[in-house]
Amino acid sequence: MSIGLSLPRADGAEKLSGRATYTADIARPGMLHAKLLRSSHAHAKLLRVDASRARTAPGVHAVLTREDVPSGLMPIYGYFIKDQPIVATDRVRYIGDIIAAVAAETEAQAVAALALIEVEYEALPVVASIEAALAEGAPELFPTAPMGIVPAYGEGARGALRPAANICFEFGYRMGEPSVFDTCDHVFEDEFRFSRMWHYHLEPFVSVADVRDGRIEVWSSNQNPFPLRKELSRIFRMPENAITVRVPYVGGGFGAKNNCKTEPAAVLLSMLAQRPVRLALTLEEGFLTNTQHAAILRLRTGVMSDGRLVARQSHIELDSGAYSDASPLVAEKAGYRIPGPYQWEHVDSLCRCVMTNTAPAGPFRGFGGTQAAWASESQIDMIARRLGLSPLAMRQKNLLKLHQAFMPGESGVDSDLEDGLQTVLAALHHTPAPDRGLGFAVGFKDGGGVNKPAQARVKVSTNGDVFLGCGTVEIGQGARTAMPQIVAEILGTSAARVRVAPIDTDHTPFDQGTNASSGVAVMGQAVARAATAVRDQVLAFAAARMGAPPDTLRLEDWHIIRGNERLPLGPMIMRHYGGTGFEFTADGFFKSEADHHAPLEARCVYWEIGWAAAEVEVDRGTGQFTVTQLVVAGDAGRAINPMLCRGQDEGSAIMGYAQAMFETMRYDAAGELLNGDALHYRVPLADDLPARFTALTLEQGHGPGPFGSKGLGEGAMLPVTAAIANALHDAVGIRITELPLTPERVLHALDQLSTAKALP
Amino acid sequence: MSIGLSLPRADGAEKLSGRATYTADIARPGMLHAKLLRSSHAHAKLLRVDASRARTAPGVHAVLTREDVPSGLMPIYGYFIKDQPIVATDRVRYIGDIIAAVAAETEAQAVAALALIEVEYEALPVVASIEAALAEGAPELFPTAPMGIVPAYGEGARGALRPAANICFEFGYRMGEPSVFDTCDHVFEDEFRFSRMWHYHLEPFVSVADVRDGRIEVWSSNQNPFPLRKELSRIFRMPENAITVRVPYVGGGFGAKNNCKTEPAAVLLSMLAQRPVRLALTLEEGFLTNTQHAAILRLRTGVMSDGRLVARQSHIELDSGAYSDASPLVAEKAGYRIPGPYQWEHVDSLCRCVMTNTAPAGPFRGFGGTQAAWASESQIDMIARRLGLSPLAMRQKNLLKLHQAFMPGESGVDSDLEDGLQTVLAALHHTPAPDRGLGFAVGFKDGGGVNKPAQARVKVSTNGDVFLGCGTVEIGQGARTAMPQIVAEILGTSAARVRVAPIDTDHTPFDQGTNASSGVAVMGQAVARAATAVRDQVLAFAAARMGAPPDTLRLEDWHIIRGNERLPLGPMIMRHYGGTGFEFTADGFFKSEADHHAPLEARCVYWEIGWAAAEVEVDRGTGQFTVTQLVVAGDAGRAINPMLCRGQDEGSAIMGYAQAMFETMRYDAAGELLNGDALHYRVPLADDLPARFTALTLEQGHGPGPFGSKGLGEGAMLPVTAAIANALHDAVGIRITELPLTPERVLHALDQLSTAKALP
């Protein structure tokens, strides 16, 4: 029995000892090292890029500027909208935009050569914020619209490319009649601001490319090997079977390592140099590569006096930075999730992606759900207090019930939302005291990725050694530990006998990517089906050999059990298949159920839920406050490996806590990032954690994944910011609507509160 | 349409330009280079192996002697009998036996360090030939029997381990009643000798091993990646999923590159050095590693005066050399095939593997069938002449008919044997002249490997790029060209869109090996089934999308054809599976039909047939003779790629011709190989070929493989030696029963003939 055991990580020993292979550890014979030249201007025309001195610098084998891109390629990439050049062509759009690259024998030589490249800019006006980008007469980042596609949507939902200047995409969703607003006792309008955050994946962006004989081999720290292959195929106009993507261990991604990042430049340099090329960014360059969307969220919510929620209109502006990346998909999710897990008569949601002269924003743990939960769970609390209701009672009245559909055509909620809320509240030992407050919130997102197919393969050698082929990247979440537990449980063997084969797109079964907490809930279903199919094959084989009905046999430790008999399979296989044995093999497939009435075209695979309760104590004199207790919970449905689940819940809660308390990328009006390095970008240290911090993994048992499991990599992050803001309100009566919740903002709010009270 | 096209080799450009990757081209960071210390004695006790000076020699990272093998391993290997040590322990058994190995930073340093290893021998008596080994009181190579297993056999067949001193295995087969000998008009007894030959694969034995973190990675020039993995698993007591075997292009094998050769030593050195290790042998070391079995074949054949063959008793001794390698399997095949393709009432066959103090013998193109055909086709000819019958008429009377079973329970012959014989005779433009003669013969073997299962996988990307996963090693036979043709034909695409994924045992579907001409006839069936399954999946998918019955749709160039409509599949897939696409995937499986009445437990997959006709002209003064014409034919059933088939027929015919005319490994009585290098081992040059040399590929259409195909990598080799010997008999009345057919032997035979005639 493997399910429910907190087995140690399969990759633990390797990683702790430093022997584990990450992309940065890949070395190829004759490999060169590449570095990038980045724009020092936030917005400028590129008048001249002269790399002639760099080309003859010591050790240099290839220089890549806009002049070096071979004709016939399509050197522009992007998730939905193809707007990001491998190297800048006519203009640069943010400080850090890539202008040139050099591959040399050493990194130092590459860096030295970059300094020899002369760039002449013609500065353009800069828009470094959502407001600036949307201001009347603001300069446009893309005067002509780049090529893009609109995802397909179902009933009530729509998408549009470039609906206005500096907006690359907007998502809209409407359900029910807007006229119900007129029937509401109260309509509240509030605005919230969500800060820009960096993923802070400890392993920087890195890839190794080896191009030869009309083939591309890429090793990359990337969450999505198959989509990467597809994008490279499109850029380089090569068939997908001429491109091999391999992904070793990934040292964290949190969404950042999607689609293309360093890969196209590495490939182009390898083409030019005819040598393998390694392109490893520094940690600081990560800040310039991908970020979480800052946002302005305006909510207009209609309620009855008894607290019943009726209607919500929302307008979200996401700061997408200079290139679209996954912004359209993040907009869709933020816009879809903004109503929160409540029963509404009417929803009218609009979410727009605003282009600014800052680093591109893309997928980030929570994926729009974080922004949505911050605003929605803050406003629910505010409304309860305005109506004189308890925030708990108000939620109890409105929360979706177990199995109730979120929106028409959508799948039912597969967690008991109130039960989870009661659980975290019970676990928080709150006793009221002056300047001490209690807050809580529910985080909620459609999990697993819409429409996503997954394939997996299980094969077992003559001796019962199991191989699992599965495209889920081991990115720290424990896939290489949990997936084998699923397989082992079904095959009646131990997880230690199951090895996950390295990811290689030539061989690994297709998968759309490691994201949306889809490992166990989506890929896990494909894995379980593959394992079940192999088990059935083996039992049928044994049944035929033994002349017994398959349903009288059972598989255990690679033996066939029939009553009291225990027959080893190895010799049975050798007898039938000859001296060198055999491998039983089967594939498993999973795809979320299609529903043409669902707004996002297919029903959500499962619902990812997190609950948080926080207690704060505020120093009214300084604005300093302490989160004295933080209790979070995620619902694993069924925990395949409880320790790994707890790791996910703790990690995501801390990421939410970090955003609540510290983390924010600060840009000035000229588009300069003021704290884009490890020293100035404040992340929580162990010391900064709440004195009492508890992450609970619930097993409510309603997940669609193997054994009732579901995903939980993001849930516990979602409610933390609002829970702490709500606790501040409870403690000292202030409402902060902008992240992070700094002492300065608390002090300012306290000042405003006393000023307001002091007024006649 | 791809089948039947002589498409150029998919690997041609890479190989001709020198860019193709062979194992010798694999470089790993920090890789060391290894060399081997070999015994200078043919048979000796090893009193002392002192490597202490080598261990501190410059650049040396690891030394492997019998003292360095970690305890707990099973450092002895062998196909069926585990008798060959990785490094010698108590004794050495042939000149070239491995005593020690060194891994150093350079090959030169490794060679230098080997010279510092001191070895003290106590010489033992040597048996360097079959006769010496079987002589009364001969010293035994293995005074105690090594561990071994006996393959399973069906009716009439049996195997036995070590039935007598210096015999490691014997195979026996009996069909019908021996008493029919008494009813025969004549019983003829003849003895034939078959020479030892070297495979002469141009790429030497080479492997690279990288052992770390409890895992073994091996790149090897090996025909059988999965059996190699299995043997390494046994030796190193590691699970099969902790071992990855990768096989790049192989530069020829002809059977030699089976099971373990350089791999275990490379792995052990990598374990000891904790660095990757490359062990590349020289061409000359190949002579010391694996060879073709020399043989003594005694035939006792009962016939009627009208030429009807009735009964054959045979006794074959194979010279297995010092270690058993694949000898038991070769013995089985030689013993099973010795009756030839004729209708018998009684067969009684015994084949024994004799251990001698010479290089080990193993699989070789023809695999026992070559020895059998040499003796059998010579004797049929001799008997015809003794009875005053034409050799053609005699064969016509006795040849198995199309679909007639070779032995009880066995599958029917799937070639028209007489038709092929008439075809080669018609193509040979023989006009009688003094000292000119015509000979011919039929080669015959059960093809495809007994009992062998094969798996393959086909997957197709969103855009219709096809991946083929298939364990057949590209060893020069053209598998990477022919297999894609099969897939392309079934998927309605071009072969250029099908890429064979590199072989990697973690991922590649299981296969027992690239041998027995099984590529098209065995693996090809699995490949065709996988392609068919994918095609059916795609048509079912399109049918569901289009609301049309699948049988109204057709697949062509990744478009769905319905009547005059031609719908591209890519967009249809993207709509259904979302933005990053999908891969359709299916596996195919093939296994030969089991039959418990068949002597070898499963029926033969197909029959590999070759026909040869030769014309010779003899110079009676010198014994020099010329093969003025050689016509061979193989039956491809249906030629997937006619040019590749012709390459196989030409190549195997030349290998037979080479053995007939030149090639032989010569040992002296002390076990020293006298011609084990490229200068002294005589292979045919282009100049040496017959003035008229024609290789015909027949397409008789009865193969069980895709589109009626069958294997043909070995057939045309089998009959060549007997055809030439028969032509010599026809030309000048001599009968040579020992290979090669040197001028000395011809002259000697002519002398004996004239002496005999001169006798009163």
Give a verbal description of the structure.
- Two copies of one chain form a homodimer.
- The first copy, chain A, is an alpha+beta fold.
- Chain A folds into three domains: 12-124 and 202-252 and 256-287, Alpha-Beta Complex (Aldehyde Oxidoreductase, domain 3), CATH 3.90.1170; 294-449 and 597-758, Aldehyde oxidase/xanthine dehydrogenase, molybdopterin binding domain (Aldehyde Oxidoreductase, domain 4), CATH 3.30.365; 454-590, Aldehyde oxidase/xanthine dehydrogenase, molybdopterin binding domain (Aldehyde Oxidoreductase, domain 4, 2-Layer Sandwich), CATH 3.30.365.10.
- Chain A is 26% helix and 27% strand.
- Chain A contains 17 helices and 32 strands.
- In chain A, the strands form eight sheets. An eight-stranded mixed beta sheet of chain A has the order 3-8-1-17-14-15-16-25. Chain A has a six-stranded mixed beta sheet with strand order 11-12-20-19-18-13. In chain A, strands 21-30-31-32 form a four-stranded mixed beta sheet.
- In chain A, helix 9 (369-387) runs parallel beside helix 16 (720-732).
- Chain A is globular and about 95 Å long.
- The first copy, chain A, starts with 11 loop residues before the first helix and ends with a helix.
- The interface between A and B is large, with 60 and 59 residues.
